[in-house]
Design a protein that fits this description.
The protein is mostly helical and 251 residues long. The chain has eleven helices and no strands. The longest helix has 23 residues, at 49-71.
Length: 251
């Protein structure tokens, strides 16, 4: 079945390019159906890399064919498709291709670069994620999407620290999957190392320590727990070394 699906998607990709060139006046009527097909099917959830590659090809051709006229009204949906593809661990080999398509989508929507696209969509996507983040596990695609979204949104995250830290704090709870907890601590470390965020992190440093770092420092038996504590120590040392917390807040 994956091979058949892959072949169908390859054919669909070629049809998009051909039809948009010869029948551009009819393309708008089909683009929403194409987007609906990708979203309603299980293609984005597929474990088959070949299927995911073909979905990316279809999406890339769709963004190219839609141009400036048809991309803007569908910006959020196209962005979400590319975000899920780009955040999938199985698609690391195609990261550059995803990034190039995101850049094209941004320009078709009148934005300077892809980072502006992330910043524009950050608020709405965080609202969607708040509906189910407390049920994420190591297999949840939403956790990978969250990670990529906030990493690439640059300084736009400062307007949503409360929401972002709430999600992270919930996901590092000791009852959650080891992989989920480790990735969230890695994300915290990324924030703490990003100089452009330091001026804002200072005001949230006490919350980061009490809600995220300290709970992960608590002792429990097992190698996974040791790894969690080491990651939390790295975050604490980064916080201290960068002068992001006042000494009075450490007591």
């Amino acid at each position: 079945m994956p091979r058949f699906v892959s072949s169908c998607l390859t054919t669909l990709s070629a049809i998009i390019v051909h039809s948009s060139q010869r029948f551009s006046n009819q393309f708008e009527g089909h683009i929403d159906r194409l987007i609906g097909l990708i979203i309603s099917s299980d293609y984005l959830e597929s474990e088959n890399v070949e299927v995911l590659d073909r979905v990316l090809r279809v999406t890339k051709n769709m963004v190219h064919a839609a141009g400036t006229e048809y991309c803007l009204p569908r910006r959020k949906t196209l962005f979400k498709i590319l975000l899920q593809l780009g955040s999938n661990p199985s698609m690391t080999h195609a990261r550059q291709d995803v990034d190039n398509t995101l850049e094209l989508l941004a320009k078709n929507c009148g934005l300077d670069e892809a980072s502006d696209l992330f910043s524009k969509e950050l608020e709405n996507l965080l609202k969607e994620m708040k509906e189910d983040y407390d049920s994420w596990n190591r297999h949840s695609p939403q956790r990978f999407i969250f990670d990529l979204l906030v990493r690439r949104s640059n300084t736009a995250v400062v307007d949503f620290w409360d929401e972002i830290l709430e999600i992270i704090a919930t996901c590092v709870d000791r009852d959650r999957d080891f992989e989920l907890r480790m990735d969230m601590l890695s994300l915290v470390e990324h924030f703490l190392k990003t100089e452009s965020l330091h001026s804002t992190i200072v005001f949230y440093s006490e919350i980061i320590v009490k809600m995220i770092i300290v709970p992960c420092l608590k002792w429990s038996v097992g190698i996974p727990s040791n790894s969690i504590r080491k990651a939390a120590v790295v975050c604490m040392m980064t916080l201290l070394n960068n002068g992001l917390i006042e000494s009075v807040k450490m007591h």
